[in-house]
Design brief:
The complex is a heterodimer of chains A (about 375) and B (about 425). With about 375 residues, chain A is an alpha+beta fold. Chain A has 2 domains: about 230 residues, P-loop containing nucleotide triphosphate hydrolases (Rossmann fold); about 120 residues, no CATH class. Chain A has 8 helices and 19 strands. In chain A, strands 6-7-8-3-9-10 form a 6-stranded mixed beta sheet, with helices on both faces. In chain A, helix 5 links the parallel strand 7 and strand 8. The two termini of chain A are about 30 Å apart. Chain B has about 425 residues and is mainly alpha-helical. Chain B folds into 2 domains: about 110 residues, no CATH class; about 220 residues, MetI-like fold (Orthogonal Bundle). Helices cover about 65% and strands about 0% of the residues of chain B. In chain B, helix 6 packs antiparallel against helix 7. Chain B is flat and about 100 Å long. The chains are: A alpha+beta (about 375), B mainly alpha (about 425). Chains A and B meet through strand 6 and helix 2 of A and helix 16 and helix 17 of B. The complex binds adenosine-5'-diphosphate and magnesium ion. The site of magnesium ion has 2 residues of chain A, from helix 1.
Chain lengths: ~375, ~425
């Protein structure tokens, strides 16, 4: 999927670069293509260039270099209002001087759609987000969640094929956000629209998207479906950024096909899967997910290398137990286990052996 | 909860009605707030409310005639103003008695000045007669009718007495009638003779030119405010200093500078002649007329338009325009349907400010207005400092105040005053 040929792609960035000041590249060599109907999320820390990419696609910023294609055609020189792309802004950008219905009617009016047609479409779009009653209100008379729905239906009312959303849920509280995440994906799939969604919230990215593009420092660090992103991060930035992650540093001391042995800085040896390392002697950061660490003596794999750990802290979280361990000089090594009948409760101060399957421990770039 | 079952007023914890204890707790707050605004309140009262009140009063107050010559006023009550004949001896007797008292107190010339507003010649009549009446004795020298007519034959003229009688009322509408080019006559309100009708024209001109000035300010300020609002903060602040720079120079200096610029031997004409656009013998007349006043006042009042516009535009997020364009609006549609309506409060605030300032402007029209470009305020100033007809000045000022209030009210009806935002 990642190597989608440009001609099949509905949206494509080809070698796109962007600089605002002529000195620093905010976007460095962006290549990205997505097929019709896909829900793609751009995920990354603040300042990584996500909004800039979205604005270039929408036409509000020009690419310094490279080409942006929509439906196979370069849109570099097409002004925003002719691109027919729906947008949802972080602050919603609902026009305060118009009622909700007038807001929705606006894109239809500028398209010179007849009055009766317009009213029907506005009503349909409002019903779509369960806001049929609110057509006569001003945006200021709506709650944040309601404004969000209106912004969403305004972006969809003129039936664009591509919709861009820039952190649309950033201002909502947690519960509302989860509800809207579901609502947005439902609508996107029902209507079959292609969506580019920007967020810095990884949970949002994982739960909503078909694919996620992880941005850092103006580059896509990894482009993959959510499960792959979480389970098979390709570099230590992605491993760190997505979900909770334990990192240990060391040097590769032996390589054998799909496994390698890494000697940690305190001399202990562990098994790992080489991802970004290719030869013995290379420095590496290994990454292990907290829930993939095993410390139940009965289930530890006797063949594999085990590592000594000291329990620092036990945190009871109801559905899961969380332990903070000290492993090879790393005092923030987190282990999670399900609160099952046979779960072991470790006590602070205890010294235990821990282990994992080699494929769960990924040797990444240092 | 016990509160839910009991009927009657809700009680606070100590048993007093909640309303009462709330009022008590708010009272302290209110007192403190009052103490804080106290000094300002007193200042406003002294410097604003009282002067305006006294101006309103002065525009109708007319006690002078009755205070200075009370017996005459009393005696004139029996005189038929329409008879066309001079009054009888009783009136002259009363008048001499009054005048002797008034001359003693040196009040008779002031009365003369007052009556002179209504009929020219009265001032000199009173001054001249005063000197001679002083020597008369109210008992020994009676009767007076012929003696007075001897002093000046105007005393035998019914018109003189008609003026005195007409303006002897305590509260008069005479000043207001004068202010709208009419006069108080024995036959009621009548139009002034044609050569004295200038005030209505001046009012109309003031309103018209203020509108033109407001409109030119809107046209010039809008793009400037727009640019300022869309520049980065640092640059905008720097340019803002340029906008405010004129405030650092004296108004007089700025106005005089326009004189240098606009006069026929001035900078602009010289340049135009030098460029060959204007012939040397056909230099443009741009000063001492309405054009000069409009140009100079537009320049002087421009910051008052830019500032409110700027502060309103600053609050219009750029995402509104982007949203509009993403929905298919052209630059123009996005501006006209989205940005412009959101900036109207700024235009409104600026317009009210500029219009009200310019309607009462004085210095600039005085300097660059010539005769064709002066405002009603120049006339008010004339009556205050030259003709000393304060009653008329007050009436003109009151009308000006009323016009502003009416326009304000109309604006509220049409646009809505909550649509005005200064920041
Ligand atoms: N209009 C602009 N002018 C100059 N620099 C900008 C502008 N917009 C964004 N930047 C810079 O570009 C970088 C990327 O910004 P942005 O695309 O907004 O990141 P993100 O949306 O991922 O937080 C940031 O360092 C930001 O300071
Ligand atoms: Mg952003």
């Amino acid at each position: 999927m990642a190597d989608l040929a440009s001609e099949d792609a509905f949206v494509a960035f080809e070698r796109v670069q962007k600089s605002y000041d002529g000195e620093n590249l905010v976007v460095k060599d962006l290549n990205l293509s997505l097929p019709k109907g896909e829900f793609l999320t751009m995920l990354g820390p603040s300042g990584s260039g996500k909004t800039t990419c979205l604005m270039m696609l929408a036409g509000f910023e020009t690419a310094t270099h490279g080409e942006i294609l929509l439906g196979g055609q370069s849109i570099n020189n097409i002004p925003p209002h002719k691109r027919g792309i729906g947008m949802v802004f972080q602050n919603y950008a609902l026009f305060p001087h118009m009622t909700v219905a007038e807001n929705l009617s606006f894109p239809l009016e500028v398209r010179k759609i007849g009055k009766s047609d317009r009213e029907a479409k506005v009503k349909r779009a409002l019903d779509m987000v369960q806001m049929g009653e609110f057509g006569g209100r001003r945006p200021a008379q709506l709650s944040g969640g309601q404004q969000q729905r209106i912004a969403l239906s305004r972006a969809l009312v003129f039936e664009p094929e591509l919709v861009l959303m820039d952190e649309p849920l950033g201002a909502l509280d947690k519960q509302l956000r989860e509800h809207m995440q579901f609502e947005i994906t439902r609508l996107a799939h029902e209507l079959g629209i292609t969506t580019v969604y920007v967020t810095h919230d990884q949970t949002e990215a994982l739960t909503m998207s078909d694919r996620v593009a992880v941005f850092d420092d103006g580059r896509i660090q990894q482009l993959a479906p959510p499960d792959q992103l979480y389970e098979e991060p390709e570099n230590s930035f992605v491993a760190q950024f997505i979900g909770e992650n334990n990192t240990l540093e060391g040097t590769v001391t032996s390589m054998a096909g799909n496994t390698c042995v890494v000697t940690l800085d305190d001399g202990e040896e562990i098994d790992a899967m080489p991802v970004n390392v290719s030869q013995v002697g290379e420095r590496t950061k290994v990454s292990i997910r907290p829930e993939r660490v095993e410390f139940n003596k009965d289930r530890l794999n006797a063949d594999a290398h085990l590592v000594k750990a000291t329990v620092k802290e036990f945190i009871y979280m109801g559905d899961v137990f969380r332990f903070r361990l000290s492993v090879a000089g790393n005092d923030d090594f987190i282990v999670k286990t399900r609160n099952a009948p046979d779960a072991v409760k470790l006590k602070p101060g205890e010294t235990i052996d821990i282990g994992w399957l080699p494929q769960d421990c990924r040797a990444l770039d240092a | 909860m016990s509160d839910e079952t009991q009927s009657g007023p809700v009680l606070a914890a100590d048993g007093t009605p909640l309303k009462q204890s709330l009022a008590r707790s708010l009272r302290n707050q209110k007192m403190r707030a009052l103490a804080l605004i106290g000094p300002l309140l007193i200042f406003v009262l002294i410097s604003f409310v009282i002067p305006i009140g006294s101006m309103l009063f002065r525009s109708v107050e007319n006690g002078m005639v009755e205070q200075t010559i009370p017996l005459t006023v009393e005696a004139l009550k029996d005189w038929d103003i329409d008879s066309g004949e001079s009054p009888n001896e009783a009136v002259y007797q009363a008048f001499v008695e009054d005048m002797i008292v008034a001359i003693e107190a040196k009040k008779h010339t002031r009365l003369g000045t007052r009556l002179n507003y209504e009929q020219t010649g009265m001032s000199s009549l009173f001054r001249k007669s005063g000197r001679k009446i002083k020597r008369l004795d109210p008992q020994a020298d009676a009767p007076f009718k012929d003696k007075l007519i001897d002093i000046d034959k105007k005393w035998g003229d019914a018109q003189t007495w008609a003026v005195i009688k007409t303006h002897s009322v305590k509260i008069t509408n005479g000043y207001f009638l004068n202010a709208i080019d009419m006069q108080r006559t024995p036959e009621g309100a009548q139009a002034q003779p044609e050569d004295k009708r200038i005030l209505i024209t001046l009012f109309k001109r003031t309103l018209f030119m203020s509108l033109v000035i407001t409109f030119s300010c809107i046209m010039l300020a809008y793009p400037v405010a727009w640019i300022l609002a869309n520049l980065p903060m640092r640059t905008a602040n720097m340019l803002m200093i340029l906008v405010l720079l004129p405030f650092w120079t004296s108004l007089l200096v700025r106005t005089s500078a326009w004189k240098v610029m606009l006069q026929q031997q001035g900078v602009i004409n010289e340049v135009l002649v030098w460029l060959g656009i204007v012939a040397d013998d056909a230099r443009l007349v741009m000063i001492n007329n309405q054009l000069g006043t409009i140009i100079a006042m537009t320049h002087i009042l421009l910051p008052f338009m830019i500032l409110p516009m700027y502060s309103v535009m600053q609050t219009i997020q750029p995402t509104y325009l982007r949203a509009a364009k993403s929905m298919g609006a052209t630059n123009w549609t996005a501006f006209w349907r989205v940005y412009f309506p959101l900036s109207v409060p700024g235009i409104g605030a600026g317009s009210i400010l500029v219009f009200i300032l310019s309607i009462g402007y004085y210095i600039t029209p005085e300097i660059v207005g010539g005769t064709k470009g002066v405002f009603i305020s120049n006339r008010i100033a004339y009556h205050i400092s030259s003709s000393l007809n304060w009653g008329l000045a007050a009436a003109l000022g009151t009308i000006l105040l009323a016009v502003v209030l009416i326009l304000y009210w109309a604006y509220d009806k049409i646009v809505g005053i909550d649509n005005v935002k200064l920041g």
